[in-house]
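Sequence only, no structure available. Ideas?
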Amino acid sequence: MSVPVHEGAARTVLRKEALPTWLLLAVIWGGVTYSAAQYWTALPQYAYGWILLGMCLYLIWREDYPKDNDRSVNAGWIAAAGLIIFLIAYIIARPNVDWRPAVWTLTLGAVIASAGLVWMVWGRAQMKAAIVPMGVFLFALPWPMRIELPVTQFLMSAGALIAVETLNAFGHLALLTGNIIILENGAVGMDVACSGIKSLQASLAAAVLLIAFFRIAWPVCLWLPLIAVLMAFFLNVCRALLLAFLAAREGTAAIERWHDPAGWSLLAMNFAFLLIIAARLRDRAPAVNKTVKISQPTASKPVVLRLAPLLILAASGLVATEIWYRMRPATPAIVWTVRWPENATGFRTIPIPSAAADLLRFDKSSSATWKTLDAYEWTGFFFE
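Reply:
I predicted one. Tokens follow.
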């Protein structure tokens, strides 16, 4: 039979014998968060992952988990398979923190394990509801390099080309060399910071979060990510044009003053626009009659006995991995040094730009330029 979903069903379902299940979920997603947080901390374009994590926790707390008895003992095998994938990926990701496929495999294993676990303990309806915040969390992960690099190169090239054509149309002489805009009073480089990849990633994450927050139904929800991509590209082109015009009129020093304020202002405009669109799409979405099929509960082992093997496997796997990598003797570090040819012709040191320092996160650095006897000019960089 079908019965309507009642508000507050989540409180009743999640309190009943919930401690072992929540403990296992905390172990799994604690490992995922530990691996993803290293990207959120090291790479500025993924710093929004901390905000997305908090919003995912809010969505889990807010979600209406309908109460039903449609549980499956076989879902335990799904949870076990996902847990094995999670542990294998964690063993690989632990020493290879910068290998993004390992983090993705780790998270997908956690999603499979969590879905099977919730289905086994609380039922299929709760599993479907829990999939939403887990899907939102995927957008906090770093993009694979095979996707991020081509997208970044396209955004840099397209932004630079549009900026040059617009400058020439308004009477400012500009030439394009690669991703560098040559002006009469200097050069403007369309580097990664100006590519718009940060705003594109943040806009997509915001769009998916708003879909989950407003519960926008399928297929109406597909419009929001598409609008987010178009808005991110359009606003980044506007920022590139603004900086290029400022550089043409006031010199390249104006870029340093206006780069970050322009970026944050346009990002706020983008989010506000997406918020308005999401609210309109929610009003246009067809109403969904949320009913749940209640079946007779099947006899099974107590929850603690069913979860004990999975909990032991997850905890022992994570602990063993940490012990293995922490107790192994450390390899002696190789000390690198550099000795610049200070007596060479035209030798001078070069300061490292602050944007490069924020991106590379080195402890020590030095750079210099000089000329050799055959009139070749050399530039060297050393980072430690």
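Confidence is low (pLDDT under 50) at residues 1-14, 288-302.
Hope that gets you unstuck.
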